[in-house]
Amino acid sequence: MSEANIPSLLVIDDDKDVRKIVDLTLTRLGGFHVVAVEGGEEALEVIQKRRFEAVILDMCMPAMDGEMTLRALHRLPNMKEVPVILLTAQASSRLPKNLESWGVKCILEKPFNPLELNRHIKEILTKE
Amino acid sequence: MERTTKPPNEASRLRSMERLLPADFFPRNLLQKTLKMTCKLTGFPMAAVSVVGENKQRFVAAIGIAECEFERENSVCAKAILNTQPTLIPDLSVDVRYAQLTFTKATKMKAYAGIPLRTKQGEAIGMLCLLDLQPRLLPPHLVLALSNMVEILMEALEDRLYARAPVSSTEDDSFLLAVLNSLTDVVLTVDASGAISSANHTVEKLFGIDCTQVIGQPITRFLPNLFSGGASSIHDPYATSNLLAILETMEMTAKKASGELITVDVRAGRLLRRGTRTFTLMVRDASERKRIEKMKDEFIATISHELRTPLTVLRGALTLFDAGLPEAEMKELLGIAQENTDRLVRLVNDILEIERLETGHIQLRPKLEPVAKLVEGILILLRPMATARKVKLLAQHAIEGISVWCDKDRIVQTLTNLVANAISFAPPDSAVCVSTALTLKADLRFEVADKGPGIASEQIGKLFQRFSQLGNRNAKTGGGAGLGLAIARAIVELHGGRIGVESAPGEGSHFWFELPGPLSFA
């Protein structure tokens, strides 16, 4: 894969350590390009400037939480087709309904296996 | 010898004796204390509570004399219960009525002063008697005092029976009604047609309607889903399976007289009386239960979230250790793993700590502690953290040389928590000030002031609850899980003190707590 063909991923998680782990997992183990931000506002800023092949989003965040971020992202024209992987530290029963219509392809419960995260992203990107 | 006759109410007298002095619930302490007080008051060396049974008279509690028994016809007390007044004999041995009794001869007792132990119904179950080997007479003012004391003793004997079995007097309808009306649950009876046939007073509080006005109304007016088997089932409530079901507690919607809907727990029972089947309902406002359940759910959800986050980091780090990363990244990863292990340990400790504090399983070890020294110790401990964030730490004491009665370790823990929070939120080049002063109530007030972002008023109320961390603190401060202030509150309240905060967005925060002391001034 040439440099230009490496998929770029956007990671949104408020916990700096989780961000670092996901970043390392995706870059070192998965070979992706990663931009990691700590909240919905920053995500909206970077996403207007460039295209991402997938978004990895934490559901439970202060201020702008995962659901709000998801809605805001989905409104952007260049985000309509971008797949989203949700990371959640809560029971899936507490998740909002109709996540699929917002582009959510996969939900991973924390603590997830980093290799699983990579595998899911690769599968999703291959299908796309 | 004059024969002892029996009082006219002998049968009920014996029943009362059994009831007030039951062998399995014997008021030994009460009787002993009364006797002790009696001797002290009168100067008599011996006193006894004597009961007169069918055949025997017995001292069931005694001071200065053995707990012994005599044949009824040979007992002074058995004669004395026949008198309506206290029996006062200065010298038994010279009184023809008593001189020949076995009691008098065997004990060589001279003085006897007895007050009958009389129930409200006038039954004398025995005597409170004072005895002396020397002849003497109990003066009238002490007779009066003792009579009053016996009256109080008899009331106490009655009262303790209520404490033992509150609904023991089943024959007393008004008592039962009072019991029903004192309940915080609504108790209703419903007849076979589904109409309310009786209700306790609590119905007014729960349904907003007087208990006399509900009589005759269909129960479904207040509990619309009670017979959700269909309209016909209302006429024969016992036929529906739903009724069988609510023999267990069932949560349902109730409709108040005002039309307002509330959630209630309903429990039902059946009663067959004079050939008619009645149905009893206990209805309880479920809002408090629901509130506690919701709190518990939230607590578990938050704990689960707080545990999962560091576990995610640890699991990720362990996987990445195997990925052949450059040394610098491995080192960083190791640091992160260590920090998150600490975070997990802290969290587990905090959860256990708040549980112990809130269930009262922590005992304080208070001493008089010099306040200035205590504060200085904390500032020394936290100075490296403050320096790293370019925050200055100051201490101010309105009164020098003051000491406060407290558990030092716990108050250090509380103050450390407040100061560390303040440092985390203080902007660089600002100061965090710890001050102490006396309040108007002469409590000792600790204050921790910072120039941080401040707290919005709607969040202040939640601040000292478990897991109330506002906004994104973890990422920036590496701090706790939001239990610190809840622990601080529990500690201060265990000291009998108060904790609070004054703050507004953009104006910094003043966290404070007050300890009631005692205080000492050097």
Number of helices of chain B: 16
Label the structural class of chain A: alpha/beta
Overall geometry of chain B comes to extended
Overall 3D form of chain A: globular
> How many beta strands in the DSSP annotation of chain B?
19
Encode the helix/strand succession of chain A as letters: EHEHEHEEH
Which spans of chain A have pLDDT < 50 for at least 5 consecutive residues?
none
Number of helices of chain A: 4
CATH architecture of chain A: 3-Layer(aba) Sandwich
Most strands sheet of chain B: 6 strands, antiparallel
Mean pLDDT of chain A: 85
Computed Rg of chain B = 37 Å
Structural class of chain B: alpha+beta
Q: How much is the radius of gyration of chain A in Å?
A: 13 Å
Mean pLDDT of chain B: 84
Major β-sheet strand ordering of chain B: 3-2-1-6-5-4
Oligomer type: heterodimer
Can you put this structure into words, describing what you see?
The complex is a heterodimer of chains A (128) and B (522). Chain A has one domain: Rossmann fold. Chain A is built from 4 helices and 5 strands, in the order E-H-E-H-E-H-E-E-H. Chain A has helices at 16-29, 40-49, 66-75, 114-127; strands at 8-12, 33-37, 54-58, 84-88, 104-109. In chain A, strands 2-1-3-4-5 form a 5-stranded parallel sheet, with helices on both faces. In chain A, strand 3 (54-58), helix 3 and strand 4 (84-88) form a beta-alpha-beta unit. In chain A, helix 1 (16-29) crosses helix 4 (114-127) and helix 2 (40-49) runs parallel beside helix 3 (66-75). Chain B is built from 16 helices and 19 strands. In chain B, the strands form 4 sheets. In chain B, strands 3-2-1-6-5-4 form a 6-stranded antiparallel sheet. A 5-stranded antiparallel sheet of chain B has the order 8-7-11-10-9. In chain B, helix 2 (28-42) packs antiparallel against helix 5 and helix 10 packs antiparallel against helix 11.
